[in-house]
Every structure is written in structure tokens, then in C-alpha cells.
Amino acid sequence: AQSVAQPEDQVNVAEGNPLTVKCTYSVSGNPYLFWYVQYPNRGLQFLLKYITGDNLVKGSYGFEAEFNKSQTSFHLKKPSALVSDSALYFCAVRDRDDKIIFGKGTRLHILP
Amino acid sequence: AAGVIQSPRHLIKEKRETATLKCYPIPRHDTVYWYQQGPGQDPQFLISFYEKMQSDKGSIPDRFSAQQFSDYHSELNMSSLELGDSALYFCASSPSGRQTQETQYFGPGTRLLVL
Fold first, then answer.
1. What would the pLDDT profile of A19-67 be if each residue is shown by its tens digit?
2. Cβ within 8 Å, pair A34-B103
3. Cβ neighbours of B45 in A, within 8 Å
4. For residue range A81-93, what is the model confidence (pLDDT) as tens digits?
5. Interface mutation vs chain A, best among B57, B91, B96, B106, most A CBs within 10 Å
6. Rounded CA gap, B89 and B75, in Å?
């Protein structure tokens, strides 16, 4: 079965510093990987996805993620964090039947 | 750009009542997915429809049913509501979702509170 793991419940980063939110995956076959962000009392917003091609995927709001097959990881990164990036981030994988399977989420706090 | 629309945004019901949640996908999206996110939990897949036919079923209780209509909007019907049904219910849509690389775009969710 497809699954993703987010090892950190919470990540704290000072504003202006680079941020990384970790995600590892376990899939059979080719992985379709996603990052979604959830702001308080808001829906899930799509950030980026990896289907095939370049291992470095660029997404919305300056975020990017690096697909690493040998480490089965898909970490989310941003070179310089903003306070407005504070939110709940979900790594996800698309199952064979097209449904999305989410990780447990990582709460990102950007400290002013 | 048009997004997924869900109504109502908030709903308060009492135990054993029924509720109907509606989802209007992005125009030209023919695939709809329903997810349930309990307090402090990650979203869990409930059910999906492609071209008005149920395409996959997840951890959806038998008390719940759903359908997709000819205009591709979908409704999630929930009966005999229980306290544990209190959650945020998301709808997502994608174009031609079956076995494609398309992204699922999520609506803002319906927050259901069962008292």
C-alpha cells in the first residue's frame, strides 16, 4: 500500500531562514507525490507535485521539493521563510485508485 | 480561476439527524473525491466519482451515501449522525481523474458539528 510519513509534528524556523519540511514515502511502482498546505480554517491548497522528470520541483509561493529516489524522500523546502508561511503542511501520495493518501501533517511555525 | 465550491461552509446538527453536503467541481472537471478530516487528523478518503459513477470507496460508513449528478456536482448524504461525525469534509475535483497524472484541487470544506 502507498503511504507517506512526516516525521516531525512541528517545525519552528526564524523568518528569513531556509525551511525544510520532511517527508518520506513508501510506494509500489512510480510515485505520484504532492504537497498541500492548510491555513487555519481554510481548505487544502495544492503547492506542488512530482510525477516524473526533474527531481527538483518548483511550486507555489516560492516552495520547492526534491524527489530523492534512493532515500525515498520528498522534502519540502523554501530558501527564505515568511511569517505568512506558518500553516499545516501535508505530504501526500496518489494511490493506484487515484485517491490521495495524506501524511499526518507538519505544523510549520515561522518566528518573526 | 474558478475553484471547487462547497456548501454549506458550516453546519450544526444534532445526533440522529441527517445532513447533505454539496460539492461543485471546477468547470470541466469530471471526477470528484470526498475526504473527511477529524479534529487534529489528516484527511481520510471517503468516496470518489468519475463520470457520475462511483469509482472508489474508502472508509465511508454505511450511514453515508453519495452521488454525482449530470452536471458533475456531487452530494454527500449523511444519516443517523453521530458525535464522531463532527469533522471537516472536503471535496476535491480533477479532470479525467481515472489513472491520470491530474492534480486534485480541494474545496474550502464544510465544517460539520454534531451536538
1. 999 999 998 888 899 999 998 877 889 999 998 888 999 999 999 999 9
2. yes
3. 99-101
4. 999 999 999 999 9
5. B106
6. 12
